[in-house]
Structure formats: C-alpha cells, structure tokens
C-alpha cells in the first residue's frame, strides 16, 4: 500500500492537505459529470433487462466480489437466469465487449471476472463501456444483469443500487480522492436502494466465512496448513491475514503487492520452498506456474436474515422477483 493510501485511513495530515487542490478538482469534475446526466445533457441508456449494480463509494478492498457471488447464487435459487458485466480491470481482451469462456486466463480477462466465471459459470461480459457489455447479452435468455461495480457509471441505467461498505475501514478519513479513499461523498448513500456492510453489526450485513484451503494448481481442497508465507495483491490484505491467523496458520512472512498485480513466477523467488498461501483472486493469476505447495483460502459471503428479507422486498418491489 502506498504512502498516500496509508494516509487515507489516518487522521488528516500534511499529505491530506497537500493533495486537497486535486481533491477539489476531482469533486468539481465528478459533480459536473453527474449534473450533465441529471439535466439530460448526457443520456442514460435504458435496457430491456433489469440491472442490479453492486458497487461502493470508496476505493477497493470492500469485499464486494464475494457478495456478487452470493447475490448471483441467490437469484439463481429464485429461478433467474443471471449474467454479470464488469469493467475487467487489467484485462487484455482481443476486443470489447468480450464474453468470457473456460479457456480464458486471468491475464487476458482480469482477475475478478475470471474468479467469478470459475465460481459461477454464468455469462460474464467485460468492457470499459458497460452499456456495450449489457447489449452483448441481448441474444441470451437473461432475466437479470448484475454489474460488478459501476455505481459511478451513470450512463448505464439501473434498477437497483446496492452499496457495499467495509465495516472496519468505513470511509477512512472521509475525504474524496486523492486526499481520501472516497469516489463520492457519503451523502450518496442516501440515494442507493440498500447500504450493506461487509462485517460489523449493522442491520444489513454479511460476513466472510472460511470455506477451506485449496491447492492453487488443481483446486483440490486440502487440510490445515500449519505454516506458510502469505502473498497477496488485494485492496485490503489485513482481513486475509486475520482469517489465516484465526485458522491457526503460522505466518512465516508477508509480501503484499498492489491490488490487481499481474503475478509472474519471479515474484515468488525470494520465498524459497516453503508453503505459500494467497487469496482466491490471486490464485487465478498463478495457476499456470503454481507449485504443489501453493494454496489459496476460499471465502463465502453469508448474509444475515435482515439483509435477505430487505433485499427480497426490494427485488419484489422492482419487479425483478415475483411473489407467489
């Protein structure tokens, strides 16, 4: 994590104020862009399929991907054919919009879309233009589209907005980027359909539960790992380290990279022959060169009853689900 990112989760400092002119510029540009949609200067594209946006107002590390997996599986359990659209951060697809297939590798389509496809097997389309991604799904029998992130992609019409908030980190120092971690002001939460906390004890929350340790090379579930080096390239690696500690794994060393870091084999040279444990998002980028003693921790989101009931109520009200 860079020095600037570290400052986001501390009281305002000289660095915060030093960056404040850029923060002011970011605020005016983003507000002007948002106003252009509100006044109809820029057009919001409406689609024939309901769209649920799962996003946040802060940068990275909110635990959003496990909730997207949970929501997809929940909608499937209600008899819905679900597809996912994503920006595909870090992807190098031959063209956009691009529909994922089993042969695609993480370096081509991005780590999060690859993880989602491996877990869910549902149609996933990546593109910087989310409207183009949704349109790509037109020929499929899709009942609902989930947009993985995209809360600030105002050109894309949406039926439901779900905002994920990390219970521990919350909104950091409360400043907009780059002085703080916020993409939008906290008042934006008043306009979304539901604010959902990852962890914590708020009315609507979910927890991340350990679903076992798996070998990176072949996805085979293994038993307890006594000790290991920890390698991670996610937005908030501290939560990952805490999970391993709770499982009783002795941590030999920790090596953190920037979020979405494109791993290569050389990144692991200094760790020797000891066990290595990483996140599932990291594992999809390392599978082609992983050693036999490289593992990843799989986690699943578990929503509390109040969240399930409130979400169900919203989906019924918006006509995405239908009562008996």
Q: What would you say this structure looks like, in words?
A:
The protein is of the alpha/beta class. The chain folds into two domains: 26-204 and 304-317, 3-Layer(aba) Sandwich (Rossmann fold), CATH 3.40.50.300; 209-300. It is built from ten helices and 13 strands. Strands 1, 2, 3, 4, 5, 6, 7, 8, 9, 10, 11, 12 and 13 form a 13-stranded mixed β-sheet that branches. The mean pLDDT is 95. Keywords: ATP-binding, Kinase, Lipid A biosynthesis, Lipid biosynthesis, Lipid metabolism, Membrane, Nucleotide-binding, Transferase, Transmembrane, Transmembrane helix. ATP binds at residues 58-65. It catalyses: a lipid A disaccharide + ATP = a lipid IVA + ADP + H(+).
Give the SSE map.
Elements (H helix, E strand, L loop, with lengths): L2 H6 L5 H5 L1 H19 L12 E5 L8 H14 L4 E5 L11 E2 L6 H4 L1 H10 L3 E3 L3 H7 L7 E5 L11 E7 L27 E5 L6 E11 L5 E2 L4 E6 L4 H10 L3 E7 L19 E4 H7 L7 E10 L1 H13 L7
Parallel strand pairs: 1-5, 1-6, 2-4, 2-5, 6-7, 7-8, 10-11, 10-12, 12-13
Antiparallel strand pairs: 3-4, 8-9, 8-13
- Please identify the top-level CATH class of the largest domain: Alpha Beta
Q: What is the N-to-C order of secondary-structure elements (H for helix, E for strand)? A: HHHEHEEHHEHEEEEEEHEEHEH
Secondary-structure-based class equals: alpha/beta
Main sheet specs: 13 strands, mixed
Count of alpha/pi helices = 10
- The assigned CATH architecture of the largest domain is 3-Layer(aba) Sandwich
How many discrete domains?
Answer: 2
Helix content percent band: 25-40%
What is the CATH homologous superfamily assignment of the largest domain?
P-loop containing nucleotide triphosphate hydrolases
């Amino acid at each position: 994590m860079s020095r600037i990112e570290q400052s986001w989760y501390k009281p305002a400092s000289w660095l915060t104020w030093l960056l404040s002119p850029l923060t002011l510029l970011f605020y005016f540009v983003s507000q002007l862009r948002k106003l252009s949609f509100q006044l109809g200067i820029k057009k919001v594209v409406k689609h024939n399929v309901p769209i649920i946006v799962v996003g946040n107002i802060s940068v990275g590390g909110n635990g959003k991907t496990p909730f997207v997996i949970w929501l997809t599986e929940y909608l499937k359990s209600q008899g819905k054919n679900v597809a996912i659209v994503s920006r595909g951060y870090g992807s190098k697809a031959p063209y956009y919009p691009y529909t994922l297939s089993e042969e695609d590798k993480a370096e081509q389509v991005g780590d999060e879309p690859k993880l989602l496809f491996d877990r869910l097997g549902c149609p996933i389309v990546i593109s910087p233009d989310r409207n183009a991604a949704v349109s790509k799904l037109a020929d499929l029998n899709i009942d609902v589209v989930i947009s993985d992130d995209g809360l600030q992609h105002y050109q894309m019409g949406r039926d439901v907005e779900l905002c994920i908030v990390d219970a521990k980190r919350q909104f950091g120092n409360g400043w907009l980027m780059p002085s703080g971690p916020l993409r939008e002001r906290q008042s934006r939460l008043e306009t979304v359909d539901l604010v959902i906390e990852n962890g914590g004890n708020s009315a609507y929350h979910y927890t991340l539960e350990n679903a076992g340790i798996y070998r990176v090379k072949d996805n085979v579930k293994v038993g307890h790992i006594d000790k290991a080096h920890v390698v991670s390239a996610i937005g908030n690696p501290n939560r990952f380290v805490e999970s391993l500690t709770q499982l009783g794994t002795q941590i030999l060393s920790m090596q953190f990279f920037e979020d979405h870091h494109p791993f290569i084999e050389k990144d692991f040279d200094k760790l020797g022959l000891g066990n290595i444990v990483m996140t599932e998002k990291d594992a999809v980028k390392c599978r082609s060169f992983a050693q036999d003693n490289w593992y990843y921790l799989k986690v699943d989101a578990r929503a509390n009853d109040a969240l399930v009931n409130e979400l169900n109520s919203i989906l019924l009200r918006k006509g995405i689900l239908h009562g008996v």
